[in-house]
Amino acid sequence: MPEGSAGSAGSAGSTEPAGSTESAGSAEPAGAPAPHGDPLTAVASALHALGRELDGLSLAELLWLAAGTQARPGTGATDPADPAAAPPGSSGTEDPRERTGEWGRLRRPVYGPAAPGGEALPARAVTVPGGSALPRAREIARALRPLRRPWAAGRRQQLDLPRTVARYARSGELLPAFSPAPERWFDLSVVVDRSPTMAVWGETVDELLKVLATTGAFRTLRVREVDTWEAGAEAEPRIRGPQKAAGTARQRRLTLVVSDCVPGAGADNWLWDQVHAWAGATPTVLVNPLPPKIWRHSGLDLPAVKVTTPGAPGVHNAQLRFLAPPLLEDAFGPPGNRTDTWLPLPVVGLSPRSVARWARTLMRGDPAGCDAVLVPEPGLLGRPAAPPDAPPDAGQLVDAFLHRASANAVRLAVLCSPYPRMHSGLLHLVRQELVPEASAADMAEVVVGGLVSVEEGEPGRGGPVLRFRDGVRERLAPRLGARDAARTRDAVSRFMAAHTAAPSRFPALVPEAEGGAEVTADHAPFAEVHPEVLGEAPTPAGEPGPQTSAVAPLVEAAASGRPTQSARVRPYFFLSYAHTPRYGATGADPDMWVERLFRDLCGHVMALTDLPTGYPVGFMDREIRTGEGWSERLSTALADCRVFVPLYSPRYFASEMCGKEWFAFAQRTAQHGAFSGQPAEAIVPALWVPVPPSQLPAPAERLQFSHHAFGERYVTDGLYGLLKLRGYADEYERAVYELAKRIVRVGESVRLDPIRPMDFPTVPSAFGTATSYRGSLRIAVAAPTRENLPEGRSADYYGNRPDDWNPYHPLTARTLAHTAADLAYQLNNQVEASTLEDEVALARHRRISGPLILLVDLWALEVPAIGRALAALDTYDSPGTSIVVAWSRQDRESVEAAPRLSRRLATTVPNLLRRSGRSGEGVLGLEDFNGLMPQVLTGAYDDYLRPRPRLPMGDSSFRERPRLYDPLGRPPAGPGSTLEPE
Fold this sequence. Notes:
Elements (H helix, E strand, L loop, with lengths): L2 H10 L26 H12 L5 H12 L32 H6 L2 E3 L9 E10 L7 H7 L6 E2 L5 E3 L1 H11 L6 E3 L2 E2 L1 E8 L8 H13 L3 E9 L12 E2 L12 E6 L9 H14 L2 E4 L16 E5 L12 E2 L6 H4 L9 E7 L3 H13 L5 E7 L17 H11 L2 H10 L4 E3 H11 L5 H9 L3 E4 L9 E4 L3 H5 L5 H17 L6 E7 L5 E4 L6 E3 L22 H9 L12 E4 L15 H17 L9 E2 L10 H11 L2 E6 L1 H4 L2 H21 L9 E2 L10 H4 L10 H13 L4 H21 L27 E6 L33 H11 L4 E3 L2 H10 L6 E5 L7 H13 L4 E5 L6 H17 L1 H7 L9 H20 L37
Parallel strand pairs: 7-8, 7-10, 10-11, 11-14, 22-23, 22-24, 24-25, 26-27, 26-28, 28-29
Antiparallel strand pairs: 1-21, 2-19, 2-20, 3-6, 4-5, 8-9, 12-13, 12-15, 14-15, 16-18, 17-18
Helix pairs in contact: 1-2, 3-17, 5-7, 5-10, 12-14, 13-16, 18-24, 19-21, 21-25, 23-24, 25-30, 26-27
């Protein structure tokens, strides 16, 4: 073997007998540069210096990539094998701190809290997006539906129409009759245990409270908090929160206690005494996140029973029925002669099934009943204090956990084993993305199963920290394969890239040379994200930085799977579809076929592009997590995506929500056309169910798109038919592939810039549900031309006609009238171009056939003829007329003259300004204009269609409206105060 080969083997970490070669006895330090002249030796030295453990497949891929890659000129790369290239005074070993500059140019590794041991790297504290802490929150909300049963005799009064009509028929006098209005049955009072052991469930409790507040099942909601550990056995803990109950009867006040019942510092007796008192007066239930099989290992070691109701809804606990446990029959007495010594307390887990069973039992008298425990009266039973923690043995802890824990809990613990310390938010995120079938009880088994200890986190920074006990990770590590570890990191990275605006966040650390914190380099990062996810600007790719060799970036990318080019974190396409309702109570979810299409499209787009791992390829509303702002997520995705993909169906064009999504994206295309002067067609429609051309609304009909390239069977049956019929699997694959190619072609050719997200609830529908009325919309412009410009006004904003006016020049290339017409077309309106002179004549003859949008330039008031026309139009006060005053912040002439011209406008067209509202105050930018135009159009149509009293039609002369005169009989002064007859 050549001498260079032996050196490379030693650098790679192989074992050779001492003295077999001269280089073996040189006793060079680990990571020392190898002799110059052998490329393979340089590669091996670079590998060893990076400190990465690579398997054979990674090495093979690395060498294949390096074989066709040359060092880029100007990057400052040096050959580590050249001793002359080393800085003076260096020992030849690389300082891990020097690698932080290189990480800044690639995707950033994200670490959990630092653990003792290993090399320490400087780091900076950040917050990253987190997942939902309450599994299946929507199903839990649905399980609460029995509690929405109304109480007929509410405290409010409502108009009783039948009785009112009967009174009127009987007496002839219209005297309204009132009756009690129905209201929700219960006022809910939630008592949350905030003891130290409940800290890990803090985010879960917060999401549960949000579900209880938004489900609509309760009339009022009050939250109180108590820390059962804050006082000893002599003192009583203090309840924080409103103490006074509402004015409802006690039977209609529901008390919900949230606690894990873990014995603490001696206040447990106080909590159970309070629960016993509440249960004797009001319906009371305990919500416990722990699974029933470990209740007896906590403070909930009480007799367990099944309870049912006597038939009446909403009864308090003393009226619940149960069978006494076999060994305690004497203590309870016969069923008909029991006292309140022991009271049943229903216990509910954080699962939809458990919540539904309790709700059905309480409100519907379900004979199956629900789980409960029997709470003794105060002083009946003594409760021993919690035993002191004994030093655990790792082997016994892991064996006991594997023996009694559920499969989901075991998988969750194994997936989290690479991280010595982690925030509870990471545990929730791993559960959500990789073990979605796991419940809160499975997570509880991981937390209280003895594998981890709960440490208090930094105040206000994401809750407690979970630390694996000594020796536990080493026993769980053999169960975690390399593929599962990489899959965990990739899944967490993808979620963070796709949910940068998630409401839930938790703290983390990223390496940074000047950071004030530290991370342990020997421990694995739990995610790798682009700097934009962390709110950072990406480091330019060409900026020089310390690296060991030209192959070092490839080593980092091959080892971690992260891209070598920066990518913008925004969805490639937005899938817009109409939700299909379920058929029957137990029918399958019909939208699952749309989700399958979405996954297939994402796979094809990923294969047809160079998008990096973790990039949010597509977006559909099923990806919105519980607790996220629904309208905010939709608005952000529509403002950022490259391509809009609507799934055509009759239900789609009947959906106002789909029309809102269409219009929100169409505004981006209109704005792009205004800035660039070129049309932008970034909408790629797909046939979910074929729709006849005669049923297409105007925005869809104007699209120039042919579906025949996707196959004739696709045109006749749509994607839904190809999915449902087994014989058309090949046609479905072809259609989806062609659709993905079209999406990629449009996405790469049309580069739409992101815009400011819109207020989605106020966005109108593009399919005519709000602004498509009878009568054409007319757009006129009141602006000077280059021939009659006022003195001191630049001609850059004007043309040879009034409708050539462009107040946002040079930022936009289109005229304002053209932009307004595009926005009106997107709202399914018929648009006609008009002039100010024509509008005055139409108003004089009362031949108005639709609303009018008048675009006004403040400088037009300096032209006498335009000022007189505006005053006349204001005097006629035609219905449906709105003005939009537009000027730019960059227009210095308009900014300086705006106060003077605005006052003149207010005296010239006071009626039109009063009717126009905000649009008459001035629109200072194109984005503001695009956001305001839907409201202007809706207001103009509403005003045009508002019923007005009809005047008698005599001759064709104009009849002046009645006016108020002053005491001397003079008409009011001001523009438009007099009007000459025709």
